[in-house]
Amino acid sequence: MKIIIMGCGRVGAQLANSLDAEGHDVTILDIDAYSFDRFLSPEFRGTALLGSGIDEDILRKAEIEKADAFIAVAHGDNRNVMACQMAKHTFRVPKVICRIYDPQRRDLYILLGIDAVSPTTLVAQMLREKLGA
Amino acid sequence: MYIIVVGGGQLGYHLARALLAESHEVLLIEKEAAPSQKLINELGSVAVRGDGCEASVLAKAGTSRADMLVAVTGDDEDNLVACQVAKHKFAVPRTIARVRNPRNESLFRKLGVDVTVSSTNLILEHIEHEMPSHPLMHLMVMHDRSLEIVEVTIPAGSASVGRKVKDLALPAETVLSLIVRPGQKPVIPGPDTILNAEDQIIAISPAESEEALRASLTGA
């Protein structure tokens, strides 16, 4: 699969490293080149592209027209939401997944057809389970 | 009217004051601590601190009874989300977004924002009207179809002078609909019409083909 990941933080980089190791064609975007050095594995053979995922030109450079999936895990819910809507509605990427920290915002964008995950809810649930109370 | 303004920078502040002066009910929402405190000191209960993209903040602001929400923060993505939350969660009838990157205008409208305002495009339009010799002038934009009607004047040195319409490298879906020549009746061009220098061409074109149209008609 050709997969574009927006945001090379801990989550984005880990995702990129593992998908790349499994043989997928991975392009990862970030607005800070340092994050590529910091988080990508030295074995990463995919493409690291400097630029913003809400910039159409950058998305075209990442060859988004050919992408099978787009995953937004950049800093900032709104940036992720905007990039995912561009990927879905402008570039018709078949699979678009968005990280949204704010659970209320996540619920709204699910209604608007964006496949969204809220780590806030997931982590809070896991912590409760560990607590056992 | 009850109007909510999201973003308390210079633009939001002056907009809120102007709307208050026109006797509207206004609420100005600013996310950052220091600027919002300054606004509260000056405007009192008209200003509140909060993230205008958060449903809970908008609920507290009484957004479901708002007639309009105007998002004028400095970030396009924040303006988009504020408008989408207002529209889809609170059914606000009119949403207006400021866009910094002019290319976001059509995307935002496609995503449900009612009105977009790009200062870049506004200033550009003024420049075009101030300079009659500007090679391409916007006459009208048909937002729902993403088409624009433009006027292009053929410069004397252009490669298109003396060529037939069918031989021009026009972008796809662009139509030359009228040629206006000084002292003559306007002509509806056909494939064999030959272009002259100083012809004024009225064309209909997809907004994204504007640069290609300009190049094909005015390029040397």
Level-1 CATH class name of chain A: Alpha Beta
Total strands of chain A: 6
Binned, the helix content of chain B reads 25-40%
Assigned CATH class of the largest domain in chain B: Alpha Beta
Structural class of chain A: alpha/beta
- Pair with the biggest interface: A-B, 19 and 19 residues
**What fold name goes in the CATH topology slot of chain A?**
Rossmann fold
**End-to-end distance of chain B, in Å?**
53 Å
Question: Strand arrangement, largest sheet of chain B?
Answer: 3-2-1-4-5-6
Beta-strand residue percentage of chain A: 15-25%
Rg of chain B (C-alpha, Å): 23 Å
Low-confidence stretches of chain A: none
* Contiguous helical run count of chain A: 6
Please name the CATH architecture of the largest domain in chain B: 3-Layer(aba) Sandwich
Q: What Rg of chain A, in angstroms, do the CA atoms define?
A: 15 Å
Q: How many strands, which pairing sense, and closed or not: the largest β-sheet of chain A?
A: 6 strands, parallel
List SSEs of chain B in N-to-C order.
EHEHEHEHEHEHEEEEH
Total separate domains of chain A = 1
Shape of chain B: elongated
Poorly predicted residue ranges of chain B: none
Descriptive account of the structure:
Chain A has 133 residues and is an alpha/beta fold. Chain A has a single domain, classed as NAD(P)-binding Rossmann-like Domain (Rossmann fold), CATH 3.40.50. Helix content of chain A is 46%, strand content 20%. Chain A has a 6-stranded parallel β-sheet, sandwiched between helices. Chain A starts with a strand and ends with a helix. The model of chain A has no long low-confidence stretch (mean pLDDT 97). By secondary structure, chain B is α/β, with parallel strands linked by helices. Chain B has 2 domains: 121 residues, Rossmann fold (3-Layer(aba) Sandwich); 88 residues, Regulator of K+ conductance, C-terminal domain (Alpha-Beta Plaits). Chain B contains 7 helices and 10 strands. In chain B, strand 2, helix 2 and strand 3 form a beta-alpha-beta unit. Chain B starts with a strand and ends with a helix. Classes of the chains: A alpha/beta (133), B alpha/beta (220). Chains A and B meet through helix 4 and helix 5 of A and helix 4 of B.
